[in-house]
Amino acid sequence: MIVAIDGPAASGKGTIARRLAAHYGLPHLDTGLLYRATARSLVDEGGALDDAGRAVAAARGLALTDFDEARLRGREMGEAASVVAAIPEVRAALAEMQRRFADHPGGAVLDGRDIGTVIAPDARIKIFVTASPETRAQRRALELRGRGEHVDYAEILADIRKRDERDSHRSAAPLRAAPDAHILDTTDLDIEAAFGAALAIVEKARG
Ligand code: DC
């Protein structure tokens, strides 16, 4: 059972994916971390984020152990990842790793922007998680403050809008719901309610 969870930044998709994976005993891959780790390599080398050659080399050099770092989840890397993720060759370099993960016997849960459309178009269950930009900005501000970053709500909202724009309008695998995805709007849902709604979608789809 492949479960593909897509959606914009801070929609709740990561938490939903993690909890579904725990519920069903499936491995989970947060694919945003692949793009964030690629961006981190470029930032650390001091290279331009849109240098396709170096970005591809960084993507190919990733190891799954590269992801366990608080800095990756911070604001700077989210923004940088969105730039790197617009490079088609970077997406191609990271696609294989994601498809191998999705092929895990018994299934897997992957969350990102193009799981249901590009990485696993045959996934049995697809959920597109969304929420209003304002709600997402509030959640992201809370999360970043919880991690010790000093952030301003208005700046986070501007970041979210910019990332939505970039992720949705790039030519390579833009953020969009697969035609057969279930849309889950979490604007008025807390995490328990959002998880409950996602679980109901999965249970129904499994028949
Ligand atoms: O989900 P996230 O905030 O960790 O993702 C960071 C950026 O990486 C996001 O702005 C767009 C990009 N991304 C992508 O293009 N495709 C994915 N499957 C996951 C993330």
Describe the structure.
The protein has 207 residues and is of the alpha/beta class. The protein has helices at residues 13-24, 32-45, 52-60, 75-84, 88-102, 115-119, 133-146, 153-169, 191-206, and strands at residues 2-6, 28-30, 108-112, 125-130, 182-185. The protein has one domain (2-206): Rossmann fold, CATH 3.40.50. The mean pLDDT is 94. Strands 2-3-1-4-5 form a 5-stranded parallel β-sheet, with helices on both faces. 2'-deoxycytidine-5'-monophosphate binds at residues 9, 31-32, 35-36, 78, 81-82, 85, 112-114, 163, 167. Residues 9, 31-32, 35-36, 78, 81-82, 85, 112-114, 163, 167 line the site of 2'-deoxycytidine-5'-monophosphate.
Report strand %: 5-15%
What name is given to the CATH topology? Rossmann fold
What ligands are attached or bound here? 2'-deoxycytidine-5'-monophosphate
List SSEs in N-to-C order. Answer: EHEHHHHEHEHHEH
The biggest beta sheet is recorded as:
5 strands, parallel
Can you tell me the CATH architecture?
A: 3-Layer(aba) Sandwich
Mean pLDDT: 94
Instruction: Give the N-terminus to C-terminus distance in angstroms.
Output: 12 Å
| Derived structural class | alpha/beta
CATH superfamily: P-loop containing nucleotide triphosphate hydrolases
Supply the number of helical segments: 9
